[in-house]
Write a structure and sequence with these properties.
By secondary structure, the chain is of the alpha/beta class. Helix content is 24%, strand content 8%. Strands 2-1-3 form a 3-stranded parallel β-sheet, with no helix packed on it. The protein is globular.
Length: 218
């Protein structure tokens, strides 16, 4: 992205249960996991998760945005699923209301798996399926893409959209969700969903009594 003169930003929590020190977070934030990011100007490309809302409203989103949740919004075990849904909805809604919506594709996915039973055997080299939701004016409405994809497919889509060379054989050979988009269709209108699920006092109390296990968040 840098070599091509394209902007990118990582929106990641700077503090919280997953990062109590408030330093650059590890693990979830991707780039700051590596020294060649932490110890270079690339580290300035990471900002707090909440800034995605103002950047979307101001039409200042970069070419590539990577948005990571806080621990409480992450939908990991012992975290509130409803709170995570509310957070995802707020991000998607902010982008749909953005002046940049007409040229945007949103990929919503989860790391690893829920690790419950999956009745579909994974293809060779891949593991248990994870959800992937695509939101875009050019996404095929109500369409289920049955092509085999992986996390590398997000890289493949990004590289093809911006004419970038692949980083490895994984993304070079990955499916890029070509069947899920129709760039000739009438662009879909943005959808405003002001749905916010209240978190009950009972659920808040249960979560407080059952703090997340740090070993569960890899």
């Amino acid at each position: 992205m840098d070599a091509a003169g394209l902007g990118w930003r990582i929106y990641a929590a700077r503090e919280g249960a997953s990062n109590p020190s408030g330093d650059l977070p590890y693990g979830w934030a991707i780039c700051p996991t590596f020294a060649d990011c932490i110890n270079t100007p690339e580290a300035t490309n990471m900002v707090d998760s909440s800034k995605i809302l103002t950047d979307a409203a101001n039409g200042t989103l970069p070419n590539l945005s990577l948005v990571m949740p806080t621990q409480a919004n992450s939908q990991h075990n012992n975290d509130s699923m409803a709170q995570g849904d509310n957070w995802i909805g707020s991000i998607v809604n902010a982008i749909e209301q953005s002046p940049q919506w007409t040229s945007t594709a949103i990929f919503i996915t989860w790391d690893d798996c829920g690790c419950f039973y999956d009745h579909v055997p994974p293809p060779p080299g891949l593991g248990i399926r994870v959800p992937m939701l695509l939101v875009s004016p050019y996404a095929k409405a109500g369409y289920t893409d049955s092509a085999t994809a992986s996390f590398a497919s997000i890289l493949a889509y990004t590289e093809h959209a911006f004419s970038l060379a692949p980083l490895s054989t994984a993304d070079a050979n990955a499916y890029d969700y070509a069947n899920a988009f129709d760039y000739t269709q009438q662009p879909l209108a943005n959808a405003f969903y002001p749905i916010h699920t209240p978190i009950s006092e009972r659920e808040r109390r249960w979560i407080k009594q059952h703090p997340p296990d740090p070993q569960d968040h890899t």
